[in-house]
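G., the chain you wanted modeled:
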Amino acid sequence: MGGKTRYIMSMIVASALLGGSAGAALVDLGPGSFTAAASVITFDDIALGTINPTYSFPAVPGLGDVTVSFGGYFVGQSQGGAPPTLLDSTPDNPLALDPAAPEVFTVDDAANPGSPVLSGTPIFAGTIAVLFSTPVAGVGLQAGYFDAVGSTTIEAYDGAGNSLGTIVNGQLGLEFYGLADSTGQNIISGISFYITGEEPAGYAINDVTFGAGDVIVPVTPGPVVIPAPAALILAALGSGLAGLARRRNLL
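Predicted structure as tokens:
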């Protein structure tokens, strides 16, 4: 229900702000949107406390060799506030992780049965960025545990740092986010994940999934991904919904 509600809100706001423009666009994917051939990172093959992990995938079908790197944010972005968010979400060209950004690291999460997970700094609150050495057609990940709807944003970028669109979480608990190009083209070079609303206990990510267009289950009709300014409207709407608090063991 949460995903369907988000899809409807996305279509309404996108139509209003974009004038119903057609053509290639990112679409919002849900669980089951990737085939078994997609590449997946689960963080269970590296030690807890691993900082800014990097994974290498040789000869990925439709992509070639792909290196996936994790960090706090991209060059040109900045983190601040309480809880931390991206004060400036616009990266520089070319898209690159900022070595001066706060670290991300693997950690156990009592609220996530799929632990270990990846957290930003500070734990369960800091921003997380994912960089692909080769652009991909689609990327998904599990995130949470969410205590509020519309509290957290995922934003996708091309290799030049241009924003391709954003979505916000549409449910409480754990949720699978996914973004893909409607034409199946490999255009996504990176994503940022950050809090944009009231999220009492923070979040972490897991099961980062990606691939070329042939590993993405077609979405028809595809919900349109909101350009960044419109996503702020959805975040504001979502932050007004009450969330159920939970306890999490902060390390």
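Confidence is low (pLDDT under 50) at residues 1-23, 230-251.

Shout if anything looks off.
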